[in-house]
Design goal:
It is built from 4 helices and 5 strands, in the order H-E-E-H-E-H-E-E-H. With 134 residues, it is of the alpha+beta class. It is globular and about 40 Å long.
Amino acid sequence: MTDQELIELAKKARRNAYVPYSGFAVGAALLTREGKIYLGANIENASYGLTTCAERTAIFKAVSEGEREFVAMAVVADSEELSSPCGACRQVLAEFGDRIRVIMVNLEGKQQEMTSGELLPAAFTVKQLRGQAD
């Protein structure tokens, strides 16, 4: 799977976004270590706190299917500046490692890549939990 193929899948996922309030559609495509792809789109709710991001949708779909090892995620939004994962999404990514490649792209083709560790360098992880091992 090339980065461009992952980006194209994120663009496809973006078309399924449910964004009647903000109109800001985001798509994500998550690549697992085994080569499987999980797509996600943001889903808004009239009770705004129940809204979920495309990144978490993709991760939760993968985890619910038994996946735990992720290699890369492409995130696509229609914004002039690149749209990076929110803090909650960064924390969820960090749960599964600090080396997940995150490729942020807008519809004009501008892109930037960072790792999950670069996006959230001081993540709360199992290391901070008492009595837990790495």
